[in-house]
Amino acid sequence: MPRSYVHEARKRVGPKRARIRPVIERLERAHPDARIALRSRSPLQLLVAVMLSAQTTDMNVNRVTPALFAKYRRPEDYLAVPQEELERDVYPTGFFRQKAKSLRGTMKMLVEEFDGEVPRSIDELVRLPGVARKTANVVAAELGNPLGIVVDTHVRRLSQRLGFTKQEDPVKIERDLMKLVPREDWGRFPHLLIWHGRRVCIARRPLCEVCVLTDLCPASRV
Q1: Lowest-confidence pick of 55-59, 70-74, 174-178
Q2: Handedness of CA 19, 21, 24, 25 (dihedral sign)
Q3: 152: alpha, beta or left, given left = phi > 0 and alpha = psi -120 to 50?
Q4: pLDDT value for 2
């Protein structure tokens, strides 16, 4: 997109700090059901589901987890079976060897250092094998303690289209968003962008003609 066009588009919609609150409010009205798609009933199940969601779809994880959670109820249960058995149980989620290894390493640390409980802080979560910052952010936010903003492909793409960041690196995008998005919205904001990205602001063919953010988006085609 020509630089002159981008400049004029941003002038048309106004500064990002003036737009962030209206964007959040409109998305909340448009997607009142926006929430994490992964199904879980406990902090441990949440952690496992998010770890398994790497490089696969939430729908695929949700097909696997009912049987998995019925079989493995405590961290110790993941350590009580051979690695190969756990690999078979998570096989449909892809990258099953690495995921099984990470799960066992995480469960071992939970037992040895956290009394079998899932920690709430980002610093503690990222110490767990296989848990990077994105996973830690998701878990912390869903447990009611958002300490950052989750940046996945939808969040990155929509944040750029909305002119909230020029960065490509997820860590830098998160920093930009944390400066912009009100603290109380850190947990919900990613879900709003994710659901809007799936339903309206589609990567290959954004439905700008029905988008509630048309007049607030510098990338709008309307």
Answers
A1: 55-59
A2: negative
A3: beta
A4: 53
Contact 116, 73 (CB under 8 A): no
**Which of 139, 149, 155 shows the shortest CA–CA distance to 36?**
139
Q: At what angle do helices 16-30 and 170-180 cross, to 10 degrees?
A: 90
Helix pair angle (133-142, 170-180), 10° resolution: 40
**What secondary structure does DSSP assign to the chain, as a single string?**
--HHHHHHHHHHH--HHHHHHHHHHHHHHH-TT----S--SSHHHHHHHHHHTTTS-HHHHHHHHHHHHHH--SHHHHHSS-HHHHHHHHGGGS-HHHHHHHHHHHHHHHHHHSTTPPP-SHHHHTTSTT--HHHHHHHHHHTT---S----HHHHHHHHHTTS----SHHHHHHHHHHHS-GGGTTTHHHHHHHHHHHTS-SSS--GGG-TTGGG-TT---
Instruction: Give the active site residues.
Output: 134, 152
Distant-in-sequence, close-in-space partners of 206: CB < 8 Å, separation ≥ 6? 161, 200, 219, 221
Q: pLDDT tens, 71-130?
A: 999 999 999 999 999 999 999 999 999 999 999 999 999 999 999 999 999 999 999 999
pLDDT at 57 over 80: yes
pLDDT value at 1 more than 60: no
What are 64's two structure tokens? 């696997």
Exposed / middle / buried, residue 54 (Cβ in 10 Å: 0-12, 13-18, 19+): middle
